[in-house]
Write a structure and sequence with these properties.
By secondary structure, this protein is α/β, with parallel strands linked by helices. Helix content is about 30%, strand content about 35%.
């Protein structure tokens, strides 16, 4: 299968390279790019040739940002060893010295919670910031015996951690078929017994209801599905949102408030935001 590679180079800007690359990965992932190789001053992003169109880059907001300037070239890539690529670039995540998220080839750090995933080609480090924020929320949330939804589950990390924290049952949903398959693999790898994985979108939620809903997705999907999340939340339930930037808080909060949700906590990390709501 042939791929298109977009080679991005940071030319100048006030943002740190790390922050700029994290944002770029997240935005590219939202439009279909599947794998990323980080460089000291840029990024290579890969997408299947049949899914590529130059217009996709029109939706990448950071390319128009006044805080950073990227140059880029586009090339066709015939063969890429994807496993080799992500093994070279996937570093373990450690949250507050208690939670480790690592690949099978990483050494077990011996922390309280150890999540082992094999992210393969669609996992990008742009997810690290938002994953970190959601893990912090879940660490301090009473999940014992609770029903949980991980919406846009990706590799299944947050669903897996919810079970580790005592959740009675967890539904993990993603619209992407690869994420669905990978979540099945990773929940089995972590010996989970309370997680059900589904392929689809928010239409699968009806008529289910949950005590905790996790939605780590991009801003536009959160806005579109906020009403469904509010309707699917049990009384005195908790909704955790992430996948957007500090400047998006106002529009997210306005939509959430219109559906009877109250903002009770905010976490920020390198311009990424996590919001906690109750009904």
């Amino acid at each position: 299968m042939n791929y298109i590679g977009c080679f991005f180079t940071i030319e100048s800007g006030s943002l740190t390279a790390e922050t700029a690359i994290e944002i770029l990965i997240a935005e590219l992932g939202a439009v279909g790019f599947e794998s990323f190789t980080e460089k000291s001053n840029g990024l290579v992003a890969y997408i299947q040739k049949e899914q590529w169109a130059p217009e996709l880059l029109n939706d990448i907001q950071i390319l128009d940002s006044e805080e950073i300037e990227f140059s880029y070239v586009v090339k066709e890539i015939e063969q890429v060893n994807w496993n080799e690529e992500w093994e070279k670039n996937f570093d373990p995540i450690v949250v507050d010295g208690e939670v480790s998220i690592r690949a099978p080839f990483h050494e077990d750090p011996g922390l309280k919670y150890d999540i082992v995933i094999e992210p393969k080609m669609s996992f990008g480090t742009g997810h690290h910031e938002t994953t970190h924020l959601m893990i912090k929320f879940l660490m301090h949330l009473d999940l014992e015996g609770k029903t949980v939804l991980d919406m846009g589950c990706g590799t299944g990390i947050l669903a897996i951690f919810s079970e580790m924290r005592g959740a009675k049952s967890v539904d993990a949903i993603d619209i992407d078929s690869w994420c669905y398959e990978n979540s099945l693999e990773n929940t089995a790898r972590n010996k989970c017994i309370s997680i059900s994985v589904f392929e689809g979108d928010s239409s699968l939620l009806k008529p289910n209801s949950y005590e905790v809903i996790i939605a780590n997705i991009n801003r536009n999907i959160l806005l579109e599905d906020m009403k469904v999340y509010a309707q699917s939340l049990k009384e005195n339930g908790v909704l955790l949102l992430s996948g957007f930037y500090t400047e998006d808080i106002e529009i997210i909060d306005s939509e959430a408030s219109s559906h009877g949700l109250e903002l009770v906590e905010k976490l920020e990390r390198n311009n990424w935001v996590g919001l906690k709501y109750v009904n």
